[in-house]
Specification:
The chain has 259 residues and is α/β, with parallel strands linked by helices. It is 49% helix and 15% strand. It has one domain: Alpha-Beta Barrel (TIM Barrel). α2 packs parallel to α3 and α4 runs parallel beside α5. The chain is globular. Bound molecules: 3-hydroxypyruvic acid and magnesium ion (MG). The site of 3-hydroxypyruvic acid has 6 residues, from α10.
Amino acid sequence: MTQSPFPLARALRAGETVFAGWCTMAAPLAAETLARDGFAGVVLDAQHGLWDTASLIAGISAVHHGGGSPVVRVPLNDFALVSRALDFGAEAIIAPMINTPEDARRFAAVAKFPPQGERSWGPQRAMTLQGRTATTDYLREANDGTLTLAMIETPTALANVDAIAATPGIDALFIGPYDLSTALSGGKAQDVTAPEVEKAIDTICAAAVKAGKIPGIYCSNAERGLVLAKRGFKFVTIGSDQAMLRDGIAAQVKALKNA
Ligand code: 3PY
Ligand code: MG
């Protein structure tokens, strides 16, 4: 995936399934390791993870250096960071809690250059990472080359899913199963395989496919990721870095205790 300037969009638009690591620790080295050790994409989570602007700039470069595609999840309603993260070299943006077509329009507007949207010009860092100097090449390719992933994770979003999927400039629907489970259970559960959550997951996947958009979902591990890839999801995130580190530590400590 390294020869194209926008490898993630190229793979997903060609119908490939992409697994991405999920990185919360605001450690560029952790993000680079996720890419270098096998994830085609790495999500830097600036909503619930610890990434701030300065660490995002370093983290995006580190993922790129590790041979992966950097993706940023922005904080709630932080539409300014959408275009900034694209300027820093993110290949895709995940925006949380996109509940209405109006939310989707606002998101697309800051991510896409005219005439599709209103993204302001300034991708110097992104162009440097791609090794280009011709601004018009980036301008011509960026709307297709970068991806907007609208998070569907509330009952309101579920009710509006077809209109959100149909919004021009929205490239993908990305499910947050934990928020969905929290809301659908009336705040009682975090069960992402509860029947009502599973039904919502399939409804959202079908809505994306019907609209010609990419279906994506957050998964806590590879086992669940493979199940959902078989059910039609194309952008499947795995992890987080913190959980992987904890699992690795637990296995080593257990081996020491059992010696
Ligand atoms: C959710 O499951 O709600 C998410 O946002 C995944 O990070
Ligand atoms: Mg969420």
